[in-house]
Design a protein that fits this description.
5 helices; disordered N terminus; about 180 residues; 6-stranded antiparallel beta sheet; single chain; alpha+beta
Length: about 180
Amino acid sequence: MTSKKQSVVIYVLVGTMLLGVVGTAAAAILSSNSQEQEAEQLQELLACSSPFSPAGEPIEAPEKPVIIKERISELDIIDIKVGTGEVAKEGDCIVVHYQGHLTNNGVIFDSSYERGQPITIALDEVIEGWQQGVPGMKVGGIRRLVVPGELGYGEQGSPAGGIGPNQPLTFVVELIDIQE
């Protein structure tokens, strides 16, 4: 990698880690690497870029977030921490803590952490990005989902959360429990 490319990679990775959006931007810059090399590098970065403080509280986004202007066309699933418990399946009722922010500017639009209480919800009652991105998670795991607008709130958006039409979203989901 050239030093200019390394500098750009470092800048983008540091900025995106602060926002909790490692993956899409980094993958675009690291596209000259094989998929295996890229996956290994991103996993190494994620191991030291948890969006949570040691006390388990989400880290606040920086005042000047990195803005990703490229179109996100597919769901990006990144395991930050692999759990050790039961595996979530399609249609399960799950207990999660989560934080959601707008991918293109880092604005947090919803957070169970801020409310101080996890939510309990059936996977068939959430956006398509969660329906596809949460199954396979193990209890105790933390996963980042970068959701294209089509798998989020679609054309209608969500005025309540300030989410525009086809707005890409990023969620950090911590799977606490699976209920019967």
